[in-house]
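Async update (no meeting this week)

Hi team, since we skipped the sync, here's where things stand on the single-chain job. The sequence we agreed to prioritize is pasted below, unchanged from the tracker. I ran it this morning and attached the output directly underneath so nobody has to dig for it. Comments welcome in thread, and please keep replies under the output.
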Amino acid sequence: MIGMLAFIPFLHPIAAVHDWWYLLLVPLSFGIAVIYKAMRLPTLDAFWREVFVMTTQIVVAMIALAIGLAIWVRLVIPLLPVSPQAGLTPAHPSPPAASAPLVQRA
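Output:
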């Protein structure tokens, strides 16, 4: 019963946003733009125009970065050589052979 009441964000994320989590970029970037422009503009005459321009810039930049990363991962990385280099140890070395016990008894 207690386990059902607990919410651990990274181990058990909210299931309601799994299909459209990427759309949360728009309100996040809008909030960042509102706060940033409210602090940086000397006058608030063109506040909303500046906010929408910055929101658009953030969203377009994130989409461009996602496309660039997808191209890098799917096209460039598979072309890299896979041959092992001399002097590198394996990622999972084999455990040492069983020898004397680690604890000495008196």
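Quick observations from my side:
The chain has a mean pLDDT of 82.
Residues 72 and 78 are 9 Å apart (CA to CA).
Reply here if anything looks off.
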